[in-house]
Amino acid sequence: MRLTGLLALGICLIGCSAPDAETPETLVTSGYDQDAMEQAIGKAQNSVSTFVAELENPTGSDHAVKAPIEDDGETEHFWLTNLDLKDGVFTGIINNEPGIVSNVKIGQSWTIKQEEISDWMFMKDGMMHGNYTLRPLLETMPAEQADQLRAILVDP
Fold this sequence. Notes:
Blueprint: H1 3-10, H2 34-46, H3 48-56, E1 61-71, E2 74-86, E3 89-94, E4 109-113, E5 119-124, E6 127-130, H4 143-152
């Protein structure tokens, strides 16, 4: 499965408003355990050195980080792909459509400091490493979809 498909399945975008007909289907604003999500973000931030080491000497592919982007008091989390890392700053391309904020668009370049990311992920040997913010969402997904994702998660 390509990264885009995995991100569409496993994307976690957190915001305060409910989705409507204009909202991307990947936008998740409720239904998950908020404490578990905060713990997942903490785990990703605390283990980012693992991701940085992988990115500097890649053994996998489809490297991405999740960037919380704020606009008008709302926050939405976006996967950045095609990453570069220089002096502790990731530069990448926004890989999903906005559903809450309006100050970014898919395909746009974005930079974020290493300590500000909300998640990271990469694929290696068909397994997904990182993507900790996916885990709280598994309980909200249809069982078949959640099982498919659990099967490729390292440490599900």
